[in-house]
């Protein structure tokens, strides 16, 4: 122990006398470990850390179904209807309990006091399944989890502390949601926020709240797919057994239903949603970025290993002296290991700080905006960073320890400047080749995502989202909705007039649907060809006001848009998009044609054709779109305008005044959300923006580390060969000859690394192809650009020591013999 303490002190003294080496090594390690710690924080939240306060989460599973959907092919969904939930709850024996839930944002309160709360509609089995215990009051009883039950609510600990000051008097207080008062009966335990990453603030009985918050009569509809399903497996039941059990119950419940898929099969997965079969694009990119961060750590590790190896070889005379004074090779190796561990731990401390800052960036890029800011578990992050640091310390200490263990230190003790030979570069060259190869792979990935992002941003959406604001009003909060929908019509007309008068507003419209927002479908047919409609997927239905075309920036291709008489007279007219015009009237003109829509079907005259617009995804095929001025006359459920659209050249500057104006229009007005239409599109662009940003950052970081590593190695090679270079100059070698001598090795390393990196990128291109947009993973221009960037950077790193070699004084070099 005393010898180990002595070696530790010696290691500290050695590092104190090498500040540049310490700073460079710690910085390299901090960047590599910091990148990994940052990605671990995200990956831990998405894939590893179970929801808080869920007992034995490994036995709690999510239920998915693989099925065939007409027009969409084979899909996997985690959504079921309430009748399907009952089938599985009552018809299976593999679960202790089964629960269903649906999480949504709802408006609570009225007027200026209205607030948006993340609310989960749950069955009465939900809390019992998760085995959570209330901090105050109780959870839902079976009676409260039935149709017609008492409107009650459970709130989160955060809401209890924030709104009620943690007072026991919160029990019995009402929450006004969708025109009903829900009495608070319990408070969830501190830290429990549901089973998804976004924290829930209020839980309501599903059967009680479904009519207001989902749809009237929805709870009896077998086709109303809106619930997520979870179950707690009984002890000893395997997932395969439970999957067969659920599949049988699900198929039995859908027997006789005309739209049922008899081949539907259940699949059980982890309670963590992103580990299931329906992984989000952000989670897919997160997996790749985790791999990229590991590559950056490898590059940093290789770089540091090279630095340690160079430092160890420079200290051969010191180690030889230690051996001559009685030290063993094991003790010399231990000294090197202690130095490495101290350096790595220093890098780990800085890495935690890097991860703290990087975590905020990753939160904004990778996680939902509703995810908690403290999603990172710092005890787990610290443990991971220390373990990763120790693993790195072990690996990077091997090259210098091995070099010292096999070196002829007696020869080193009596050797001079000619001791170094080119052959000693072999091991370091192999490390550098791998480092350059990894850098090339990262730069190619960055180039692919940058080009994908450019292609996405250049995509024609069919409309102009930039200057448009979306005003979303949670109208279920107005009690008059069911009693008299005409009141809501009148309110919208008043809103349009008031908003149109605001300074900076150029046009206003109302609509039931907006691009990349909510969209509903409608069956449509052409007279005489009604049978063809059965084979087509439903058209997207947009019920829009007169100002919709101008407000959204929709382009008119033929005919006209709706005019005021179409609304005043209730004219049976329609506007279709280009895809619908081509599909329903191939080779002909759609204007003046009849389109049948609704139940019962009524003939509507097509008066206009507008440009195709992207509605749900950036890379989807265009779908038929049907625009109507109203639908109540064709027997459909009243699809009244659900949002205002406002066009302004200064959208952000008018947003606050717009919200105040709308909020003051009615004393029963619920919470009003005002946001740019571009914010609805931003999540669709996120995977490519994320990939371009982080791959570029990691690529530049890797290139920097590669340049530093090559520079350090080439500098050491020049110092080793000082005597040789002096002899060459004395014999008449020119400056160009010395430059070629030194640069040749750097170019060989670079060329080998580039070739290896390109081959690796080509082999891995197929795996990443699904994340790219309109660019091939084998794009030659991107491969060439990445190779050129690495070539120029490494040439610069090699040139500096090469230029220094040309200034060697042959007299001094020979005197150093």
- Which spans have pLDDT < 50 for at least 5 consecutive residues? 416-423, 477-484
Sketch the major β-sheet. Answer: 12 strands, mixed
Total count of helical runs of at least 4 residues? 25
Shape type? globular
Can you walk me through this structure?
By secondary structure, the chain is α+β, with helices and mostly antiparallel strands. It is built from 25 helices and 24 strands. Strands 1, 2, 3, 4, 5, 6, 7, 8, 9, 10, 11 and 12 form a twelve-stranded mixed β-sheet that branches. Strands 15, 16, 17, 18, 19, 20, 21 and 22 form an eight-stranded mixed β-sheet that branches. The chain has a four-stranded antiparallel β-sheet with strand order 14-23-13-24, sandwiched between helices. α2 (19-48) packs across α10, α8 packs parallel to α11 and α23 packs antiparallel against α24 (780-806). The longest helix has 43 residues, at 678-720. It is globular. Mean pLDDT is 80; it is low at 416-423 and 477-484.
How is this fold's topology laid out?
Elements: H1 2-16, H2 19-48, E1 60-69, E2 73-77, E3 79-80, H3 82-91, E4 95-108, E5 115-122, H4 126-130, E6 136-137, E7 152-155, H5 157-164, E8 174-177, E9 180-187, E10 202-205, H6 206-213, E11 227-233, H7 239-253, E12 265-270, H8 281-314, H9 316-324, H10 329-366, H11 378-406, H12 409-414, H13 426-457, E13 468-473, H14 480-483, H15 485-500, E14 507-511, E15 520-522, E16 524-525, H16 530-533, E17 539-543, H17 548-552, E18 556-559, H18 564-568, E19 573-577, H19 578-584, E20 594-597, E21 602-610, E22 625-628, E23 643-647, H20 651-663, E24 672-676, H21 678-720, H22 722-730, H23 735-768, H24 780-806, H25 810-815
Parallel strand pairs: 5-10, 7-9, 17-22, 19-21
Antiparallel strand pairs: 1-2, 1-11, 1-12, 3-11, 4-5, 4-11, 6-9, 7-10, 8-9, 13-23, 13-24, 14-23, 15-17, 16-20, 18-21, 19-22, 20-21
Helix pairs in contact: 1-10, 2-8, 2-10, 2-11, 3-7, 8-10, 8-11, 8-13, 8-21, 10-11, 13-21, 13-23, 13-24, 21-24, 23-24
């Amino acid at each position: 122990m005393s010898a180990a303490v002595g070696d530790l002190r010696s290691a500290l003294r050695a590092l104190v006398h090498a500040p540049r080496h310490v700073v460079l090594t710690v910085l390299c390690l901090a960047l590599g470990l910091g990148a990994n710690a940052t990605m671990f924080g995200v990956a831990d939240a998405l894939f590893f850390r179970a929801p808080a306060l869920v007992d034995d989460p490994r036995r709690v599973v999510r239920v998915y179904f693989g099925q065939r959907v007409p027009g969409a092919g084979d899909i996997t969904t985690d959504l079921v209807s309430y009748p399907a939930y009952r089938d599985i709850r009552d018809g299976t024996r593999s679960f202790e309990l089964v629960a269903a839930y649906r999480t949504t944002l709802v408006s609570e309160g009225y007027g200026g006091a209205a607030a948006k709360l993340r609310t989960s509609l749950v069955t009465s089995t939900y809390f019992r399944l998760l085995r959570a215990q209330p901090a105050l009051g109780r959870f839902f009883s079976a009676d409260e989890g039935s149709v017609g039950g008492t409107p009650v609510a459970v709130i989160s600990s955060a809401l209890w502390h924030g709104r009620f000051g943690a007072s026991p008097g919160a029990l019995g207080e009402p929450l006004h949601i969708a025109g009903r008062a829900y009495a608070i009966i319990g408070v969830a335990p501190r830290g429990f926020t549901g089973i998804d990453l976004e924290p829930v603030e209020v839980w309501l009985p599903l059967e009680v709240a479904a009519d207001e918050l989902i749809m009237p009569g929805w709870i009896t509809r077998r086709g109303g797919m809106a619930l997520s399903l979870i179950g707690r497996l009984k002890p000893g039941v395997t997932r395969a057994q439970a999957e067969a059990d659920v599949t049988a119950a699900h198929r039995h419940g859908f027997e006789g239903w005309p739209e049922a898929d008899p081949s539907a099969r259940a699949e059980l997965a982890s309670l963590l949603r992103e580990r299931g079969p329906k992984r989000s694009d952000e989670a897919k990119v997160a997996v790749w970025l985790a791999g990229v961060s590991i590559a950056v750590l490898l590059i940093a590790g290789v770089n540091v290993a090279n630095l340690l190896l160079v430092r160890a070889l420079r200290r051969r005379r010191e180690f030889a002296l230690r051996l001559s004074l009685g030290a063993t090779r094991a003790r010399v190796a231990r000294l090197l290991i202690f130095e490495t561990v101290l350096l790595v731990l220093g890098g780990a401390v800085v890495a935690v700080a890097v991860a703290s800052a990087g975590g905020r960036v990753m939160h904004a890029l990778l996680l939902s905006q509703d995810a908690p800011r403290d999603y990172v578990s710092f005890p787990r992050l610290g443990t991971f960073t220390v373990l990763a640091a120790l693993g790195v310390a072990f690996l990077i200490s091997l090259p210098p320890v091995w070099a010292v263990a096999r070196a002829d230190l007696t020869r080193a003790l009596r050797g001079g400047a000619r001791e170094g030979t080119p052959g000693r570069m072999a091991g370091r060259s192999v490390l550098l080749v791998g480092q350059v190869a990894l850098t090339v792979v990262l730069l190619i990935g960055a180039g692919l995502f940058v080009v994908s992002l450019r292609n996405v941003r250049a995509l024609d959406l069919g409309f102009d989202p930039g200057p448009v604001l979306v005003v979303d009003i949670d109208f279920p909060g107005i009690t008059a909705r069911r009693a008299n929908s005409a009141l809501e019509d009148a309110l919208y007309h008043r809103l349009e007039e008031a908003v149109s008068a605001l300074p900076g507003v150029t046009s206003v419209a109302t609509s039931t649907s907006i691009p990349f927002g909510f969209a509903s479908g409608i069956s449509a047919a052409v007279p005489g060809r009604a049978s063809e409609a059965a084979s087509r997927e439903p058209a997207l239905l947009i019920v829009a006001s007169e100002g919709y075309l101008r407000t959204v920036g929709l382009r008119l291709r033929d005919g006209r848009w709706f005019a005021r008489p179409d609304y005043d007279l209730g004219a049976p007219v329609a506007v279709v998009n280009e895809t619908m015009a081509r599909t329903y009237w191939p080779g002909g003109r759609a204007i003046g044609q009849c389109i049948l829509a609704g139940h019962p079907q009524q003939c509507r005259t097509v008066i206009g054709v507008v440009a195709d617009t992207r509605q749900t995804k950036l890379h989807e095929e265009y779908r038929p779109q049907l625009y109507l001025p109203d639908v109540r006359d064709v027997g459909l459920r009243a699809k009244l305008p659900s949002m205002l659209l406002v066009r302004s050249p200064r959208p952000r500057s008018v947003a606050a005044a717009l919200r105040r104006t709308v909020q003051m229009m009615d004393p029963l007005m619920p919470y009003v959300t005002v946001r740019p239409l571009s914010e609805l599109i931003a999540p669709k662009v996120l995977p490519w923006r994320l990939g371009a940003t982080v791959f570029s950052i990691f690529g530049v970081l890797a290139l920097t580390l590669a340049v530093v590593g090559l520079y350090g190695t080439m500098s050491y090679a020049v110092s080793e060969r000082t005597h040789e270079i002096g002899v060459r100059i004395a014999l008449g070698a020119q400056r160009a000859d010395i430059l070629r001598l030194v640069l040749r090795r750097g170019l060989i390393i670079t060329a080998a690394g580039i070739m290896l990196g390109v081959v690796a990128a080509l082999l891995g291109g197929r795996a990443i192809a699904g994340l790219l947009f309109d660019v091939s993973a084998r794009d030659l221009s991107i491969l060439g650009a990445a190779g050129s960037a690495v070539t120029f950077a490494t040439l610069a790193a090699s040139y500096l020591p090469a230029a220094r070699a040309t200034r060697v004084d042959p007299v001094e070099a020979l005197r150093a013999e």
